[in-house]
């Protein structure tokens, strides 16, 4: 049984003059210990989805089961208790601005009726875990964005949650800080076995720490699975767009104008697996066929510890030569797929 | 410049004005604070939306606030008599002052609480905080500087109202200003009472602002 199970989840927001289908029949299973990424452009419904996981947002239809227990069937009181198990961090940190760091971290414990002295003791331990023990008496306004998110993470851990929901937790941070926060989340996932659900619009976040990913667009999940799998075989247009956007973020400038140049007769995407990325396949192929190919884009990156690469080649007009080239590549154990105009 | 009697009277006037202002503000908050909280949380954007409750309090607040204080003072005379036993003097004036202050304070509190970042409230909800906990540990704490500014403004307003109550025998500095300055043309005494009123407002304002800045941890 999955730790988080979402079944036929639908959320409709109704206002006076409009009806918005924020979520349409979402199905999802997240296992204990997963780092599950949910990615999509803004307005895709991912924030609504994550708020349904702790019932901050009540679904219009469908069920959310945590360890098999249906949140929709819980009384208000049971639900408040259940939320202790499901901590959450936010894009804008949402710390109490009038309370110092240690009081902020103690806050969830005080809500649960833990004595102030005990709560503070635990809060200090948690500040040690996130590397902020010397800031315990500072106020949030005196901290940097990354430090604020660390306080928020310490606060989220205070109630010993089993699930941590991250709503665009790194979107307000610079790349270096993002990396360090993601490192911390990964560390927490390993140390405490906490399941982490990450909502983001940045593919780089998914690539760095997630084991699974669901790609959302217009209130629907378009594609989901292991991150590695989706990166090497994006099936949907949405997935390809996000992966492409990610490499643009990574190397802006080099590949910014690919669209203009992709007007070759035939384009193929070659996907490298770990063993072949060190072998000079393309060079060998060019030597063998005696015809140059146009490398339209080339990109390798580290996905969950495994080197992954992809390359888009523009092939010559000659059909026979195209076949020859493709055969050569397939022989080398690489996977190819034809790429259409909009990549 | 003034005789001992006049000075004595002025000191007593200051005492009465302070008594009326502070007591009315205190009782005003006793009712106005909960009303402001209810207005905030029962609003459709609030943490416990309740359209009927919101509408009822909204209408009450608007009605009371649209009646000029002087009229309210007179209309409430039977009510004042019922509660205090008489309709003149400082203690009696507190009754209409509180009635006028409650909706005013409720609105002040409402606007202060609305300033609290919705994200912080959402964070508290995600931790399993009850409505009561959110009000006491999040809303009132996060809005405290704004609430103190509200108290300061309220004190100034009620001080002004209490002076108005002087016209119908309410006691305090306003009473002295009317009786001596207006009825007897003793401009000197009137000027002194006005100066004293200004000073009192200044003192409240300064203390309130200092306190709110001191308690604000956002910078």
Annotation keywords:
heterodimer, A: 343 residues, Rossmann fold, Alpha-Beta Plaits, 4-stranded antiparallel sheet, 14 strands, 36% helix, 28% strand, B: 219 residues, mainly alpha, MetI-like fold, 0% strand, elongated
Write a brief caption for the model.
Chain A has helices at residues 46-53, 76-82, 101-111, 116-129, 145-157, 175-192, 203-209, 227-232, 237-250, 258-261, 281-289, 319-331; strands at residues 4-14, 19-30, 35-39, 61-66, 69-70, 86-89, 163-167, 195-200, 212-217, 220-226, 266-272, 294-303, 306-315, 335-339. Chain A is of the alpha/beta class. Chain A has two domains: 4-234, Rossmann fold, CATH 3.40.50.300; 251-339, 2-Layer Sandwich (Alpha-Beta Plaits), CATH 3.30.70.
Report on this model:
- The complex is a heterodimer of chains A (343) and B (219).
- By secondary structure, chain A is an alpha/beta fold.
- Chain A folds into 2 domains: 4-234, P-loop containing nucleotide triphosphate hydrolases (Rossmann fold, 3-Layer(aba) Sandwich); 251-339, Alpha-Beta Plaits, CATH 3.30.70.
- Chain A is built from 12 helices and 14 strands.
- Chain A has helices at 46-53, 76-82, 101-111, 116-129, 145-157, 175-192, 203-209, 227-232, 237-250, 258-261, 281-289, 319-331, and strands at 4-14, 19-30, 35-39, 61-66, 69-70, 86-89, 163-167, 195-200, 212-217, 220-226, 266-272, 294-303, 306-315, 335-339.
- Chain A has a 6-stranded mixed beta sheet, with helices on both faces. Chain A has a 4-stranded antiparallel beta sheet with strand order 2-1-4-5, covered by helices on one side.
- In chain A, helix 11 (281-289) crosses helix 12 (319-331).
- The longest helix of chain A has 18 residues, at 175-192.
- The longest helix of chain B has 39 residues, at 4-42.
- Chain B has one domain (4-215): Orthogonal Bundle (MetI-like fold).
- In chain B, helix 2 (51-66) packs across helix 5 (90-114) and helix 6 runs antiparallel to helix 7 (131-142).
- Chain B has 219 residues and is mainly alpha-helical.
- Chain B contains 10 helices and no strands.
- Chain B starts with a helix and ends with a helix.
- Chain B is elongated.
- Chain B is 81% helix and 0% strand.
- Classes of the chains: A alpha/beta (343), B mainly alpha (219).
């Amino acid at each position: 049984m999955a730790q988080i199970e979402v079944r036929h989840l639908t959320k409709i927001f109704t206002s006076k003059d409009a009806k918005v289908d924020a979520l349409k029949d979402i199905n999802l299973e997240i296992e204990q210990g997963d780092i599950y990424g949910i990615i999509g452009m803004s307005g895709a419904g991912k924030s609504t989805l994550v708020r349904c996981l702790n019932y901050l947002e009540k679904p219009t239809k469908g069920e959310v089961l945590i360890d098999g227990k249906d949140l929709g069937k819980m009384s208000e009181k049971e639900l408040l208790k259940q939320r202790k198990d499901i901590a959450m961090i936010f894009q804008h940190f949402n710390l109490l601005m009038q309370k110092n760091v240690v009081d902020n971290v103690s806050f969830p414990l005080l809500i649960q009726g833990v004595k102030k002295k005990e709560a503070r003791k635990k809060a200090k331990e948690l500040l040690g875990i996130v590397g902020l023990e010397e800031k315990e008496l500072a106020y949030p306004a005196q901290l940097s964005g990354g430090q604020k998110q660390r306080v928020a993470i310490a606060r989220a851990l205070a109630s010993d949650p089993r699930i941590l929901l991250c709503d665009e937790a790194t979107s307000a941070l610079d790349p270096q800080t993002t990396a360090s926060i993601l490192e911390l989340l990964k560390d927490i996932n390993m140390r405490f076995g906490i399941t982490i659900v990450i909502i983001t619009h940045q593919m780089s976040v998914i690539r760095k720490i997630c084991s699974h990913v669901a790609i959302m667009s217009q209130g629907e999940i378009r594609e989901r699975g292991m991150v590695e799998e989706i990166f090497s075989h994006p099936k949907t247009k949405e997935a390809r767009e996000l992966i492409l956007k990610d490499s643009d973020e990574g190397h802006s400038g080099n590949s910014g104008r690919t669209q203009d140049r992709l007007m070759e007769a035939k384009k193929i995407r070659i996907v490298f697996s770990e063993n072949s990325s060190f072998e000079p396949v393309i060079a060998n192929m060019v030597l063998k066929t005696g015809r140059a190919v146009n490398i339209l884009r080339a990109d390798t990156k580290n996905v969950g510890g495994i080197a992954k690469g992809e390359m888009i080649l523009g092939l010559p007009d000659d059909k026979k030569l195209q076949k020859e080239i493709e055969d050569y590549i397939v022989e080398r154990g690489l996977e190819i797929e034809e790429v259409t105009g909009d990549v | 410049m003034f005789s001992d009697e006049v000075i004595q009277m002025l000191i007593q006037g200051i005492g009465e004005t302070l008594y009326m202002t502070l007591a009315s503000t205190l009782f005003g908050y006793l009712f106005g604070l909960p009303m402001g909280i209810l207005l905030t949380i029962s609003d459709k954007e609030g943490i416990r939306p309740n359209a009927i409750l919101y509408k009822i309090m909204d209408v009450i607040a608007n009605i009371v606030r649209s009646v000029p204080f002087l009229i309210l003072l007179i209309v409430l005379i039977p009510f004042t008599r019922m509660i205090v036993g008489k309709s003149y003097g400082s203690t009696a004036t507190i009754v209409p002052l509180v009635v006028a202050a409650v909706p005013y304070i409720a609105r002040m509190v409402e606007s202060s609480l609305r300033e609290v970042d919705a994200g912080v409230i959402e964070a508290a909800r995600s931790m399993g905080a009850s409505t009561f906990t959110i009000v006491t540990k999040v809303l009132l704490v996060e809005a405290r500087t704004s609430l103190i500014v509200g108290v300061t403004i309220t004190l100034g307003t009620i001080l002004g109202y209490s002076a108005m109550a002087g016209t119908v025998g309410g006691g305090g500095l306003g009473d002295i200003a009317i009786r001596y300055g207006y009825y007897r043309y003793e401009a000197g005494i009137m000027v002194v009472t006005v100066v004293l009123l200004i000073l009192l407002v200044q003192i409240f304002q300064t203390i309130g602002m200092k306190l709110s800045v001191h308690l604000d941890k956002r910078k």
